[in-house]
Amino acid sequence: MTGRGSPHDAAPHDASSVARAAAACGDVAALDAAVTGCRACPRLVAWREDVAAHPRAAFRGQEYWGRPVPGFGDPAAGVLVVGLAPAAHGANRTGRMFTGDRSGDFLFAALHRVGLASQPTSVARDDGLELHGVRVTAPVRCAPPANAPTPAERRTCGPWLDRELALVAPRVVVVLGGFGWQAVLATLAEQGWAVPRPRPPFAHGTEVTLRRSGAPDALTLLGCFHVSQQNTFTGRLTPPMLDAVLRRAQAIARTGGDADPEE
């Protein structure tokens, strides 16, 4: 329970206050700061804080972030990479998306191979990593139990992704997995992008180009299997497969959607 004057008093605490807080953010830095104070989903708040209070043995003695995790990378990126949610002992521990776990190891190694990251590893917020032309984020900002946010939690968190897409204005969105795919399509439809009906199903390698009335540039969605251990350890997603998607995203970002798929 918080007392009068607590920092939690002004934090978003339900869906409507999340929407107001996100809409009020004038730039990406303000959005990132607002995200980290959110307390709108009681189940997620309880879980992320309980995990932070009971670290794994391997991380005992480390101070966990234990808060919502903002996006990370270039605030004017041509390529936005969208996952699912922070991992309990990864981003929920380090405070940076895809940082501190095997999924992040796989993703950042690929970003480095294609020239979008300054180094192949991401282990902590102060490790010196820089991203160039790319930003990584998620439709749900708190670590969920069993890596499974509820539909209501995704909807409550949705305004953060909505505002991030509007502020970053990427040309390409690389979506890791079906959960993120549905979340991004729903958000883009709300923003007025001409999302086909029925909505395009998720598949690795799927490419969908969207347009919006009054917008000079197209927006391209690229589907990619999630970088989860379930996919990478079994070979469902290999480094060459991920590299190919990222290189395709780079090509589209450079040309505005006119790149040859074979480039």
UniProtKB/TrEMBL annotation:
Transmembrane segments: none annotated. Pfam families: UDG. The keyword Cytoplasm does not apply. Coiled coil: none annotated. The keyword 4Fe-4S applies. InterPro entries: UDG_Type-4/5, UdgB-like, Uracil-DNA_glycosylase-like, Uracil-DNA_glycosylase-like_sf. GO terms for biological process: base-excision repair. Residues 70-246 form the Uracil-DNA glycosylase-like domain. One of its GO terms (molecular function) is DNA-deoxyinosine glycosylase activity. It comes from the Bacteria. Keywords: 4Fe-4S, DNA damage, DNA repair, Hydrolase, Iron, Iron-sulfur, Metal-binding. Gene3D superfamilies: Uracil-DNA glycosylase-like domain. PANTHER family: TYPE-5 URACIL-DNA GLYCOSYLASE. Belongs to the uracil-DNA glycosylase (UDG) superfamily. Type 5 (UDGb) family. This is Type-5 uracil-DNA glycosylase. It comes from Cellulomonas oligotrophica. The lineage of its organism: Bacteria, Bacillati, Actinomycetota, Actinomycetes, Micrococcales.
